[in-house]
C-alpha cells in the first residue's frame, strides 16, 4: 500500500533532503578546534582527523537525508489482525544536540492495528531515521510515535526509549549509571491502563541492562 499523505509524513519527519554534509566546512571547523585546544593539527596522529570526523558525521547524521516515502512505501499492508504488535530492544545511536556527544540505548515500539500493519524491518528503520540526527531523546520518542500514527492510523501507538547519555557521564554531573527513559502513548495506550500495562510488562520481560 502506498503512503497516502506525503505532505504530512514529510512534515512529521522534518527532513532536509536537499542538504548534503559539507565535508570541507566540517574539516575546517575541526582543524580550528584542534588548534583552539592547544594541539597541532599537523601532528601525525591528527593530520587526517578532520577528514575522519567529516566522514563520521556524514554517517551519524544520515537521518536528515532519508526519504520517508521511499523508506516506507509498499511496506504497509492490509491485514485482519487487531492484537498488539511489539518490536522491542531496537538499539539506537544518536548525538545529543546540546553537546554533540553520543547517547545510545534501546527503543521499544508497539501499536494496535486498525486493519493495517507495517513490515517488521521498517520500525527499526524509522527509529534509525530519527536517531541519526542531532537530537534530544524526548523529541525523538514523539517523532517515532507520530510517524507511525500517521502511517497506520492504528487504535494506539506506544514508544519507550531508554538511553545512556555521555554528556551526563563524561561531563557535568558525571553519573555513569544514570539513564533516561521517555515514553509517548497515543490512542488506547493513553486511555487504557490495562493496554499500557500489557505493553510495559512485555518490554520489561527479560530485558538486559544497558551498558556502554
Features:
single chain; 212 residues; alpha+beta; GTP Cyclohydrolase I, Chain A, domain 1; GTP Cyclohydrolase I, domain 2; 2 domains; five-stranded mixed beta sheet; two-stranded antiparallel sheet; 7 strands; 23% strand
Describe the overall structure.
- The chain is 40% helix and 23% strand.
- With 212 residues, the chain is of the alpha+beta class.
- The protein folds into 2 domains: 23-60, GTP Cyclohydrolase I, Chain A, domain 1, CATH 1.10.286; 75-204, GTP Cyclohydrolase I, domain 2 (2-Layer Sandwich).
- The strands form 2 sheets. The chain has a 5-stranded mixed β-sheet. A two-stranded antiparallel sheet has the order 1-4.
- A hairpin with a 5-residue loop joins strand 2 (85-96) and strand 3.
- Helix 2 (23-36) crosses helix 3 (49-60).
- The mean pLDDT is 91.
Q: State the end-to-end distance.
A: 39 Å
Do you know the CATH topology of the largest domain?
GTP Cyclohydrolase I, domain 2
Order of helices and strands: HHHHEEEEHEHEHEHH
Strand residue content = 15-25%
Secondary-structure topology with pairs:
Layout lengths: L5 H8 L9 H14 L12 H12 L7 H5 L3 E3 L6 E12 L5 E11 L3 E3 L3 H10 L2 E2 L1 H16 L3 E10 H4 L10 E8 H4 L1 H12 L8
Parallel strand pairs: 2-5
Antiparallel strand pairs: 1-4, 2-3, 3-6, 6-7
Amino acid at each position: 500500500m502506498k503512503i497516502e499523505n506525503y505532505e504530512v509524513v514529510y512534515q512529521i519527519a522534518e527532513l532536509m533532503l536537499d542538504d548534503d554534509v559539507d565535508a570541507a566546512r566540517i574539516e575546517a571547523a575541526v582543524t580550528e578546534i584542534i588548534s583552539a585546544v592547544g594541539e597541532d593539527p599537523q601532528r601525525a596522529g591528527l593530520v587526517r582527523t578532520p577528514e575522519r570526523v567529516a566522514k563520521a558525521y556524514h554517517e551519524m547524521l544520515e537521518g536528515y537525508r532519508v526519504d520517508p516515502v521511499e523508506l516506507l512505501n509498499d511496506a504497509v499492508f492490509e491485514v485482519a489482525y487487531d492484537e498488539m504488535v511489539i518490536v522491542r530492544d531496537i538499539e539506537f545511536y544518536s548525538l545529543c544536540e546540546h553537546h554533540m556527544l553520543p547517547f545510545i540505548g534501546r527503543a521499544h515500539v508497539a501499536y494496535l492495528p486498525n486493519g493495517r500493519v507495517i513490515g517488521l524491518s521498517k520500525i527499526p528503520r524509522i527509529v534509525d531515521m530519527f536517531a541519526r540526527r542531532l537530537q534530544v531523546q524526548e523529541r525523538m520518542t514523539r517523532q517515532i510515535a507520530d510517524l507511525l500514527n500517521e502511517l497506520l492510523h492504528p487504535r494506539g501507538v506506544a514508544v519507550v526509549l531508554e538511553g545512556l547519555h555521555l554528556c551526563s557521564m563524561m561531563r557535568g554531573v558525571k553519573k555513569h549509571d544514570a539513564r533516561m527513559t521517555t515514553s509517548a502513548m497515543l490512542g488506547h495506550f493513553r486511555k487504557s491502563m490495562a493496554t499500557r500495562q500489557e505493553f510495559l510488562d512485555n518490554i520489561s520481560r527479560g530485558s538486559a541492562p544497558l551498558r556502554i
